């Protein structure tokens, strides 16, 4: 996601704002379901969800600090106490999540990496899927939303051996929970979505 460097966004500021910077097990509530968005961008989707579901807990994982800062701003403006913002890479997801497993995973408009030589960077590539199997509860859902048809179809193929597909949509309706990308991309064509349950290491 495009976002210019913001000079005043420093590790010290992010830490002061409660953003997790270290790769270590997250302090998570034990009494509520926890939902995770990977590559949360500027945070419109996850902050709207957190606002609408104050009894649940949400994690926004984003690797770009300047994009992530837009989530911090929204969290403060919306006074969200049920959203944890993590600056980090999905590659090490299993180092953040220990015993408190995740009830649902959102992948919204993940980078499609169209060239074959880059496919292994896709957040739906089998290497990432095996990480998700480690951190998800046995009945957890995964929701994938994108405007990129080839990425969507390839992702369904990667997921097929380990996922029970519950809903596959090739022209998703608008909803109250849309990301910044979705709002932009809707003007250009259809939005694709898959919702399903991943077979985890516990199931
Ligand atoms: C195309 S943008 C979409 C952002 C947002 N989900 C949306 O729909 O508006 C993809 C985002 O994923 C983040 N990202 C890419 N790879 C990541 C990774 N391995 N771990 C965490 N975030 C990642 C990027 O920094 C970028 O903000």
Fold and architecture overview:
- This protein has one domain (33-198): Vaccinia Virus protein VP39 (Rossmann fold, 3-Layer(aba) Sandwich), CATH 3.40.50.
- The termini are far apart.
- It is globular.
- The protein has helices at 11-16, 44-52, 65-77, 93-96, 126-135, 149-159, 180-185; strands spanning 34-38, 57-62, 83-87, 102-108, 136-146, 163-169, 192-198.
- 37% of the residues are buried.
- A seven-stranded mixed sheet has the order 3-2-1-4-5-7-6, with helices on both faces.
- The model has no long low-confidence stretch (mean pLDDT 96).
- It is α/β, with parallel strands linked by helices and 203 residues long.
- The chain contains seven helices and seven strands.
- The structure holds S-adenosylmethionine.
- S-adenosylmethionine is lined by residues 1, 38-41, 61-64, 67, 89-91, 108-111, 179-182.
Q: Which key terms come to mind for this protein?
A:
7 strands; 29% helix; Rossmann fold; binds S-adenosylmethionine; alpha/beta
């Amino acid at each position: 996601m495009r976002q210019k460097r913001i000079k005043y966004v420093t590790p010290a500021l992010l830490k002061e704002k409660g953003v997790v910077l270290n790769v270590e097990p997250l302090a998570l509530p034990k009494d509520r379901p926890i939902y995770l968005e990977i590559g949360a961008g500027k945070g419109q989707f996850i902050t709207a969800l957190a606002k609408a579901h104050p009894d649940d807990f949400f994690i926004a994982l984003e690797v770009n600090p300047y994009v992530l800062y837009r989530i911090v701003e929204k969290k403060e403006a919306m006074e969200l106490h049920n959203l944890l913002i993590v600056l980090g890479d999905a590659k090490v997801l299993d180092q953040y999540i220990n015993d408190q497993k995740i009830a649902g995973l959102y992948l919204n408009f993940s980078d499609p990496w169209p060239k074959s030589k880059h496919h292994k960077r896709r957040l739906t590539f089998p290497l990432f899927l095996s990480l998700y199997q480690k951190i998800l509860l046995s009945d957890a859902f995964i929701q994938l939303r994108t405007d990129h048809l080839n990425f969507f179809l390839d992702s369904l193929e990667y997921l097929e051996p380990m996922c029970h597909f519950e809903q596959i949509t090739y022209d998703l309706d608008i909803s109250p929970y849309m990301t910044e990308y979705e709002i932009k991309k809707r003007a250009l064509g259809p939005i694709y979505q898959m919702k399903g349950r991943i077979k985890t290491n516990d199931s």
